[in-house]
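ok so for the tutorial part 2 we go from a plain amino acid sequence to predicted structure tokens. step 1 is just haveing the sequence, like this:
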Amino acid sequence: MKVISGDKAEVKSFTTPSEVREFPDGKVEVIMIGGALVGRATFLPGWRWSTSVQPLVHTKSCEAPHFQYHVSGKLHVVMDDGSEFDCGPGDVSLLPVGHDAWVVGDEPAVVVDFQGMIDYAKAT
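step 2 — the prediction. this is what the tokens look like for a chain of 124 residues:
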């Protein structure tokens, strides 16, 4: 694991993100800190990767690896190998490439991702 270090302290806030990427039923706000990119994704009820993001990126399934903390809401994840599970508030998930996911229920799902947002939801 690469340890990120610098010679000065930094504080950033998602209230003033470096970039906002919007897509149907969701958005990703990204900040750069310590040489790393961190993203906060908000997925509204009805969001599903295969209908909201796939049309932008044109891949069979999500090719972004994710290492994320689940703040609120619930996501159902189906991996390309057929395994599936739910992630909810307080969970930390590590998702390799090759998955679909969608919001379960009526509450927005919010995740903070420390790995997979560099190119997430960028139109190709």
